[in-house]
Design a protein that fits this description.
10 helices, Jelly Rolls, 436 residues, six-stranded mixed β-sheet, Rossmann fold, binds calcium ion, 3 domains, single chain, alpha+beta
Length: 436
């Protein structure tokens, strides 16, 4: 009886926290974060990605800050999926990531795709429109990538006209791959290379070479470690809007995305070409809904959190409303960055912007810290609430908690003793998780 009263009181307390404004700060985060944080809290690999635009691409931005904080808390399970396209692997003092991984040495006969703008035909075969291409003349085309991790997964495209490729690890040939198909649409190819490295500080060199008269398309390297912790996949493309991303809706890209074994996909995509006229962007909502429905169909069981942009231009407000509607209709997670500031001027005065749109390193710190704070709190609560790890929050979790608690030692709040505050920690987590 006593417990029931406490639960009801907690429910009322939490209801009081609901926001007065039209757009909430966030919604359904607990449910969305349960798979990721169950894995992280249980000492396993938590794999997650962000499908975004330039705000989720650049080195100074929020995404690397979220990645850094999760790695700091839970460990580094590898640097994840990173395209070979125009990325110089910078990691100086003002850049947050992605460490120095995937620095490229481009040999003769190598071309890489743009990291911004409309997807080109080679880019249709990748989730972010980015690619590398090796052509056999005038020399055997080659390109090297410096990678971290004990496992490097080479993502390439199999297509009609694709040629043979030799893959070298630190100079030694480890595989020859046939990237050709006799007919049909391009397919996803995936080669797993064990690097022999056991830490996350040693770089290995992967070299891709044409081994015949035909070109080879290599798109990205996915870096994995066998350590527990966070593994972040960058799936963003500069300037790409909801309509432009629809070029990535292919069977091959669905396969690539599934192979990343994500526990969470974050979607944060602006309006751009094909979404209508600025500032109305009348096609944005339906285009984004189409894309999100495709992600949901391709990634069954993978939660999605939709995030609005910071208010760098007036059109972001209508987008924030559209994103909220899409998230609610599909019971997805939602985070609202739009209402944090009054607009460009306020953020600029705080030093959070780098030009008109993008985040400065300070802005990256702020927004990364803010998003991490939200997901860390909700994710940890979700992992506590789902005591029996069946992916649901219900009374069986309460039962499980009290079974373990009454057996004597259950220091949930990690203060060294088992007492009523551990009960409270559980109840707050459970109430917050079930309240969504
Ligand atoms: Ca449960
Ligand atoms: Ca305790």
């Amino acid at each position: 009886m006593m417990l029931r009263i406490v639960f009801i009181a907690l429910g009322l307390f939490l209801a009081e926290q609901a926001h007065g404004q039209d757009r909430p700060w966030s919604e359904r985060l607990h449910k969305s974060l349960l798979p990721l944080f169950s894995h992280l809290e249980d000492g396993e690999v938590g794999s997650w990605g962000i499908a975004g635009d330039s705000v989720s691409l650049l080195s100074a931005s929020y995404n690397w800050q979220v990645r850094n904080r999760l790695v700091e808390s839970y460990g580094n399970a590898g640097e994840g999926y990173l395209a070979l396209a125009r990325f110089d692997g910078r990691c100086n003092e003002t850049d947050n990531g992605p460490r120095c991984g995937l620095d490229m040495i481009r040999g003769p006969g190598s071309t890489v795709g743009e990291d911004t703008g409309i997807f080109d035909p080679l880019g249709y075969a990748t989730p972010d429109g980015m690619w590398g291409l090796l052509t056999p003349t005038p020399f055997p085309g080659n390109l090297s990538a410096l990678v971290y991790g004990n496992e490097a997964i080479v993502h390439y495209t199999r297509r009609v006209g694709g040629g043979l490729m030799t893959v070298r690890l630190n100079g030694v040939a480890v595989a020859t791959v046939d990237t050709g198909l006799t007919s049909g649409e391009p397919q996803a190819g995936r080669l797993v290379v064990e690097t022999g490295v056991t830490d996350q500080a040693t770089l290995s060199t992967l070299k891709f070479e044409t081994a015949g008269p035909s070109p080879v398309q290599v798109n990205a390297v996915e870096m994995r470690s066998d350590l527990a912790g966070s593994r972040y996949h960058r799936l963003a493309r500069g300037g790409a809007g909801a309509f432009m991303f629809q070029d990535s809706m292919t069977a091959a890209n669905g396969e690539v995305l599934r192979s990343l074994e994500m526990d969470l996909l974050i979607v944060m995509i602006d309006a751009s070409f094909g979404d209508g006229e600025d500032p109305v962007y009348e096609l944005y909502e339906s285009n984004l809904a189409t894309l999100v429905d495709w992600y949901m169909a391709q990634l069954p069981g993978v939660p999605i959190i939709m995030i609005t942009h910071h208010p760098f231009r007036p059109a972001i407000e209508a987008q924030a409303d559209a994103i909220l509607r899409i998230a609610r209709q599909r019971e997805l997670g939602f985070i609202n960055l739009y209402d944090l500031f009054s607009g460009h001027e306020e953020m600029d005065n705080l030093g959070y912007l780098n030009g008109r749109v993008h985040l400065s390193p300070l802005g990256g710190q702020f927004f990364g810290g803010y998003i991490h704070g939200l997901i860390d709190e909700a994710g940890k609560q979700a992992a506590i609430a789902d005591q029996n790890r069946d992916g649901r929050f219900d009374f069986f979790d309460v039962q499980q908690f009290f079974n373990i608690f009454s057996a004597g030692d259950y220091d949930l709040n990690e203060d060294g003793i088992t007492d009523f505050f551990d009960v409270l920690t559980f109840m707050v987590a459970w109430s917050s998780s079930t309240a969504e």
